[in-house]
Amino acid sequence: MAPVTVRSCSPDVQRVFNQSPHPYLVLCTDPDFTIVDVNDSYLEITRTKRQDLIGRAMFAAFPENPYDRTVMGTDDLRTSLERVLRDRIPDVMGVQKYDIPLRDETGQFEVRYWSPVNTPIFGPDGKVTHILHHVEDVTDFIQLQEQYSKEKGKRVKKVEARPERIEAEILRRAVEVKEANRRLKTALEEMEKCNIEVTTNAQKLEAARNALEASKNQADVYIDLMGHDINNLNQVAMSFIDLTIESFELKSEARSMLDKSMSALDSISRLIDHVGKLRKAGEHGLSSRIFNLSEVLREVMGHYSHIPGRDITINFSPTQPCKVLANDLIWDVFSNLIGNSVKHSDPGLPLIINVGMGLRKEGEKTYCLVTVEDNGPGIPDELKGRLFGRFERGQTKVSGKGLGLFLIKTLVEDFHGKVWIEDRVPGDHTKGARFVVMLPAIEE
Questions:
Q1: What is the pLDDT of residue 431?
Q2: Torsion of CA 226, 227, 232, 234, to 10 degrees
Q3: Is the CB of residue 59 less than 8 Å from the CB of residue 38?
Q4: Whole-angstrom Cα distance, residue 323 to residue 292?
Q5: C-alpha distances in angstroms, 320 versus 299, 325, 363?
Q6: Mean pLDDT in each 10-residue stretch from start to end of the chain (444 residues)?
Q7: What is the Cα 2 distance to its own chain's centre?
Q8: Mapping DSSP to helix (H, G, I), strand (E, B) and coil, where does residue 205 land?
Q9: 117 near 92, Cβ under 8 Å?
């Protein structure tokens, strides 16, 4: 029987695997760890061709650099793969120096550093049938650290950009986990509603169960990969602290680096909390309860009122008390809105944020209406309609992946509400933006 690979699956699964931006290699569990599948990202990052890898032993396709006897890349990788087979759990390796051969006639090798994760893939009988080999190329980051010891202060900007890129990647994967779990829940509900004749459709039922189990395993892989990326973010934060210690004689620069490292550490705490909530919401559903929106908004505003180095004024003018039925993620909706006002404003100018709250009737329904407006750069009309789309961004120079507003829209719709953007001054988007959130009100 031929081995099951991604290419023997449905066209949709094959396309998702092949077009994933993350490098993946699928290995057999034979002693040679034969390569049975590879996606385009892996081919690009290793500068190889699919026909040169499929069917070859892992360590024949990627031999050890004979010119560098100080590293043991192949031994470490083999040990990790064998550990996956033995323990049947993902194995996160430390940063590895594993040079790759140049695909030319010179026989030379290119220096590379990798951060690998090896994950077992289980068959219907519960046995490990394949190993998913995932790597991230951290060569630039490692070489930057090495170069810093020789040339202090150079290329620090390259390190600065990494926390936000990893943060956005983790958020993106968190949303994917939530969506995958929702699809699982929907599939299970549909299967329970169907009047399946077990005796005549036993094979179809078994196939459906296997598909659900495979989807669950895929979601678990996403979670493991997120944990790996969070560890990378920790390393970046610690690197900032090291750089600060090295540059202590420059007070202003040292203070700036310390602020960045503390910001990265705070992002880690927030991300871990968000990922946990999103996973719980997807698998079991967060418990709903009644929230006093005035209390939620005051707590969020307190978080942004005193940011070092910023002149920020936040005004709150509730016209009526308002309560809604939601879960703990309600805090994140308004934290993202106010945080966007701060993030996308000019740090050299005073920022005024006005938060309003009241009730609005639409037909027979009563809604809590919350407005968050600022005197920032505003949002052009051509962007307002699509800014809540996934990975859409405005025209600011602030880096990021455009996930914040997408998450706001997702959460508000989960609470059976709606959100949109207006000009603070009607007809003049340059005077600032107004975000409007409407949530069904609870009348006690």
A1: 92
A2: 120
A3: no
A4: 5
A5: 18, 17, 19
A6: 56 77 91 93 88 91 79 83 91 80 76 87 91 86 69 51 54 53 62 57 74 70 61 64 66 66 63 60 71 94 82 90 91 89 88 94 93 92 76 45 68 91 93 95 83
A7: 35
A8: helix
A9: yes
Alpha carbon distances (Å) from 159 to 152, 218, 332, 396: 13, 31, 28, 21
Q: How far is CA 430 from the centre of its chain?
A: 32
What stretch of H or E contains 52? helix 50-53
Amino acid residing at 235: Q
Residue 298: burial class (beta carbons within 10 Å; 0-12, 13-18, 19+)? middle
pLDDT recorded at residue 391:
46
| HSE, side-chain direction, 13 A CA sphere, residue 383 | 15
Q: pLDDT at position 401, please?
A: 36
CA distances from residue 169 to 151, 282, 325 in whole angstroms, order as listed: 30, 18, 30
- What does the alpha-carbon distance between residue 428 and residue 378 come to, in Å, rounded to a whole number? 9
The whole-angstrom distance between residue 219's C-alpha and the CA centroid of its chain comes to 13
What single letter denotes the amino acid at residue 47? Answer: R
How many angstroms separate the CA atoms of 215 and 212, rounded?
5
Return the amino acid letter for 420.
Answer: W
pLDDT of residue 343: 84
* Exposure on the CB side of residue 218, measured as CA atoms within 13 A: 19
Q: How far, in Å, CA of 109 to CA of 68, rounded?
A: 10
Contact between residue 111 and residue 139 where contact means Cβ atoms under 8 Å apart:
yes
Instruction: Kindly provide the residue ranges of all beta strands, DSSP E only, lying in 308-350, ordered along the sequence.
Output: 312-318, 323-326
For the chain, list the domains and their CATH numbers.
Answer: 1-137 (3.30.450.20), 165-285 (no CATH), 289-440 (3.30.565.10)
N-terminal to C-terminal alpha carbon distance within the chain: 65
Q: Which tokens hold the place of 1?
A: 């029987």
Number of H helices and E strands in the chain, helices first, is: 13, 15
Which residue in 130, 32, 133, 26 sits closest to 85, CA to CA?
130
The Cα 26–Cα 98 span in angstroms is 18
CB distance 326 to 336 below 8 Å: no
| φ, ψ dihedrals at 369, nearest 5° | -110, 120
Q: 33 — alpha (psi -120 to 50), left (phi > 0) or beta?
A: left
For residue 12, what are the β-bridge partners?
none
